[in-house]
Amino acid sequence: MLRILNKIRQTGIVTESFSTIVSDHEIEIVGQQVQAEIARLFAGSLAIRQVDAGSCNACELEIHALNNPYYAIERFGVHFVASPRHADALLVTGVVSRHMQTALLRTYTATPAPKFVIAAGDCAVCGGEFGVSYASCGAVNQVIPVDVTISGCPPTPHALLAGILQAIQKKTLK
């Protein structure tokens, strides 16, 4: 125990500096744009079903941050639902592992049309570190159609909010 504590003392604090600080004003602007589009298209509420297709959970932590008091995404009319049958959109994270492929397809099928799919994080966008292997199908678009991708490992809550806005705007153009 003393050896571990001594090593911690010698190493010190090892963290990355937080260089990209997004202001409250920027979050409010994107949030109000999301709210306006949701009010116009979804009668004031957008329901999202989040699906972890095999991620390391870093993206999920950032998605959970959207619900904390700082970002408070529900004030903009976005909420997460437990059933794909109640969802307007799917937010998929992680490289699609082989054992989650069927579950993701069933979730996509159970989501009522019109629906849109957002792939969040580098693993969901391009396969990330894992790519295609015996245990992985690769990116989400290898299994279901994807409307919008949000890059980042993991993407920030602000990037997620901007990606949701992009998905809504893209859906209105179709």
UniProtKB/TrEMBL annotation:
Which part of the chain is the NADH:ubiquinone oxidoreductase-like 20kDa subunit domain?
56-166
Q: Does the keyword Transcription apply?
A: no
Per UniProt, which keywords does this protein have? 4Fe-4S, Iron, Iron-sulfur, Metal-binding
Instruction: Give one GO molecular function term.
Output: metal ion binding
Which InterPro entries does the entry mention?
A: Complex_I_20kDa-like (IPR052375), NADH_UbQ_OxRdtase-like_20kDa (IPR006137)
Cofactor entry: [4Fe-4S] cluster
- The organism's superkingdom is given as Bacteria
Keyword flag Nucleus: no
Entry similarity comment:
Belongs to the complex I 20 kDa subunit family.
Q: What is this protein called?
A: Ni,Fe-hydrogenase III small subunit
